[in-house]
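Researcher: Please predict.
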Amino acid sequence: MSHWRNNCGDGPPQPEQAARELLGHALHRMAEEEAWHDSSQRRVELIQKNRNFGLTAEEGREFNCLQAAIDQRLEARDRQLLGVAEEFRQLAERLPDATEKVLAEASPADRMAEWRRDKARL
């Protein structure tokens, strides 16, 4: 059953129920982002400490864990960006060559002159 159904299972949700669900989702996202910020800040602190003094074995394990978490989070974003880049690549392949466009826009006399210049070069 959809979370957008009311308690009876029929019809759209009651406004109060929908508002509670939306607020709950927003609060959950805010908590996730705050935790992510804290983890990211701790990772930066460990990087700085490692540069200046080195890390203890425990700090090294903590850093590795934080690094794995950021890698996992960014991997999904990388896949998304690579997908967008692939879409742009495919669109670009379908664009006409600039020469083709110029020739298509040229008058028959211009195309004939271009042909003669090309022939003279040979």
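Model: Residues 86 and 92 are 10 Å apart (CA to CA).
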